[in-house]
Amino acid sequence: MIFTAPEVEDFAGVESALTDAFRRAQEAARAEEPIVFVLRNEHLLGQSGVPGAMLANALLAGMRTLAAEKCAANAIAVGEDHAAEDLQHWIALLSEGRGVAGELVHVGAKHVGKVQS
Amino acid sequence: MRAIVTGAARGIGLAVADRLAADGFDVLRVDLADGFVADVTSPEDRARIVAEAGPVDVLVNNAGITRDARIVKMTEEQFLAVIRVNLGAAYELTRACTFNEGASVVSLASRAYLGNFGQFNYSASKGGLVGMTRALALELAPRVRVNAIAPSLTASEMTRAMPEKVLDKMIASIPLGRQAEPEEIAETIAALASPATAYVTGQVLVACGGRSLAP
């Protein structure tokens, strides 16, 4: 299951996106399928508005709990400088669900020197 | 100096309200059961809180609930209840407040934002608070500082109700060898709200007795 965080503008949007992620993650967990959340790095860092930051960091925390519950759950944070083919590469790798869980992979380097999530 | 503390009737909320009052703050103690009675998930009640408090110097977003279950068993009601109280209410109340110059917001996250078995809803809500803290710190600077604290096991009615063996096992995973007292967490919150940390904003202070490091 691949869930890409949508752009949100208010808490209603955050709640709607989180509910969608919850439903899809639950379905994937019950089916024992790998789970990948795709996030934007500037949202994780809080650089692009409060609603987007809340959603991205909520999904990251939720992903780590899924991993604690033995799900093959991981996340990818893309920067503005990332190449689409690089993102697809990491989605494909993490979708195989082979022995990696609870990890955040940064595609791009804009997170360097900032608070790490 | 004016402060708002939500969830102030017991536990960490009560301790931080008492601590801020001892520091000379006029504290609006918001709770479902005692003090200024209000439901932080209600827009009408949030408007009453803001009107009663006026411009504030300190806001402590403490009100929170748990509805634990593994993801495969969790209901949508359990998920949404926690998200709405722990994250939505804190965000909307913070947005509604008027802050004095140099004010400080401190939100109660949790070590669970790093991931915790059986708490997809709770950890997501606390991760959301971490995101809110970072973004608001950038948005409200330089007038207002915004930080969060992430406690772990803290003495409460809930921990007192736990079977002794369960509690002992949890404490054994904490390098400092004990759970936190609410007053200790309150002390750290008061420090984050005080001029002693005037150059700190957008940060999460993990106050977990070392549990986040232990095997």
UniProtKB/TrEMBL annotation, chain A:
Domain of life where this protein originates: Bacteria
What's this protein's name?
Answer: Uncharacterized protein
Q: Which organism is it from?
A: Solirubrobacter phytolaccae
From TrEMBL, chain B:
Write down the superkingdom of origin.
Answer: Bacteria
Q: Which residues form a coiled coil?
A: none
User: Sorted alphabetically, which InterPro entries does this protein's record hold?
Assistant: KR_dom, NAD(P)-bd_dom_sf, Sc_DH/Rdtase_CS, SDR, SDR_fam
Q: Which Pfam families does this chain map to?
A: adh_short_C2
- GO biological process entries: monocarboxylic acid metabolic process
Domain Ketoreductase span(s) in chain numbering: 3-147
Family from the record: Belongs to the short-chain dehydrogenases/reductases (SDR) family.
Kindly provide the name given to this protein in its UniProt entry: SDR family oxidoreductase
Which organism's genome codes for this protein? Solirubrobacter phytolaccae
